Amino acid sequence: MNLSTLSASLHAPGTTKASPSDVRRSNRALIFSLLFPSGSMSRAELGRRTGLSRVAVSDVVGDMLAEGLIRESGLEHTPGKGKRGTLLAVDTERLRIVSVDLSQAHLVQGAVTNLLGAEVRRAERTLDYANHVTIETIGELIEGLIEDDTVIGIGVAAPGVVSDGVVKRSTVLDWRDVDIKTPLERRFGIPVSVDNDATCDMLTERFYGQGGPNLMFVRVQRGIGAGVLINDVPVTGERHAGGEIGHIALDPDGPACPCGKRGCLETLISESALRRRMEGLDAAGRCTVLRRAGAYLAQALAMPVGLLDMADVCVYGPPDIVNDDFIDAAQEYMDRATGSSFHAPTTVRRCQCGGDITLRGESIAVVRDHLERL
Questions:
Q1: Which pLDDT does position 12 carry in this prediction?
Q2: CA atoms within 13 A on the CB side of 3
Q3: Which domain holds residue 57?
Q4: How far is CA 9 from CA 61, 164, 373, in A?
Q5: What's the family (predicted)?
Q6: What is residue 129's three-state secondary structure?
Q7: Are 86 and 100 in the same domain?
Q8: Whole-angstrom distance, CA of residue 161 vs CA of residue 332
Q9: What average pLDDT does the structure give for the chain?
Q10: Which CATH number belongs to the domain containing residue 171 in this structure?
């Protein structure tokens, strides 16, 4: 995945001419994207891949080496006796990121990671029965994680609609217009990124999982969220509510939802809703519940899959919920709903990125935002 496509810093066609700082920002995002997460290239190869001049590459690379974003990692292997170029790679030793995950029930999780999202330190704060999260809770967790001045950014992943550091609406957290960014930046003096949890999960699947540049990602846990990549660009929507499929009403006569409607997808297939429905059932009964849930998900996704011609749907959730029964039923419904002579089958599959998917994805978001700053 190209990190430069995740940057919102470039001028769109037809706008005023890009400033030198815009060009410099674009160049370093482009170079870093060719090395992230596991690339290794010489300056000459970076020049060939980017089309930048030798002087431009040398200038940007020099700054990134000094900053600690990249490192020299040895010499390239070339045939013959000519001079071998010095290879460059992402530096995993010098800079750190603090990521916080607000998506878990009864728990706020945090970790210090390197630039690739690998955990260095970890901390948790348990919540009361009501799952009440406060900015102070988040701040205390971060306070215990930061030990030095190598942290380049703090990232917070939250369920719900997120815009410019504010959680506009989260039925899971029972939040409306909660500003996370401002108080945390004031407290720690470090840039803060706030992102939707499902979008973070999708970034992890794209960089470290099996996702391609066009991907529909669904998170099935306390709530139901989704992320969409089109040509490696996340689609967030005009009001930053893209992916909020949990509040699509599939059954107007169904269970009441905190959003005010009835029969929303979140009330039908969230982890808590399904566990309540399966309580006391035998294996056959649980299978029936999960197959119906998989069909509900495919019903909600069939229209956008057809509209966008998506070939890959990845579903993340607890393995006893998002299991073979769930996925098989979703695949069967999707095939019936979208299959045609001009639409190749869409694959519905289970995400296998593991339990730290959100923290790791938030670290990617922090790196993306850091690249936009000079």
A1: 33
A2: 31
A3: 3-90
A4: 19, 14, 9
A5: Belongs to the ROK (NagC/XylR) family.
A6: coil
A7: no
A8: 31
A9: 92
A10: 3.30.420.40
Q: b/e map of 140-154 (b: 16 or more CB within 10 Å)? A: ebbeebbeeeebbbb
Could you tell me if 230 and 342 lie in one domain? yes
- The runs of H, that is alpha helices, within 82-241 are 135-145, 181-188, 197-208
* 104 and 191 fall within a common domain: yes
> Of 291, 300, 286, which is closest to residue 329 (Cα–Cα)?
291
CB atoms within 10 A of CB 372: 16
Inform me whether the pLDDT recorded for 59 exceeds 80. Answer: yes
Q: Which residues pair with 98 in a beta bridge?
A: 112, 154
Beta strands in the chain (DSSP E): 41-42, 70-75, 86-90, 96-101, 107-113, 119-126, 151-158, 161-163, 166-170, 175-179, 192-196, 215-220, 224-230, 233-234, 312-316, 347-350
Distance (Å, whole) CA 334 – CA 347? 9
Query: Contact 116/104 with Cβ under 8 angstroms?
Result: no
Say how many domains are in the chain.
Answer: 3
Helix, strand, coil percentages in the chain from 3-state DSSP, rounded to 5: 40, 25, 35
pLDDT value of residue 5:
56
Cα–Cα dist 195/117, whole Å: 16
Ramachandran quadrant class, 370 (left: phi over 0; alpha: psi -120 to 50; beta: rest): alpha
- Higher-pLDDT residue of 275, 259: 275
CB atoms within 10 A of CB 354: 11
Residue 224 has pLDDT above 90, yes or no: yes
Convert the pLDDT of each residue in 304-349 to its tens digit: 999 999 999 999 999 999 999 999 999 999 999 998 878 789 999 9
30 and 81 assigned to the same domain: yes
Residues sharing a CB contact under 8 Å with residue 285, sequence separation 6 or more, in sequence order: 278
Order of strands, sheet of 86-90, starting from the edge strand that comes earlier in the sequence: 41-42, 86-90, 70-75
Closest CA to 301 of 285, 314, 287: 314
Tens digits of residue pLDDT in 233-242 = 999 999 888 8
For residue 207, being part of any structural domain is answered with no
Identify the DSSP state of 246: G
Q: Are 243 and 199 in contact (CB under 8 A)?
A: yes
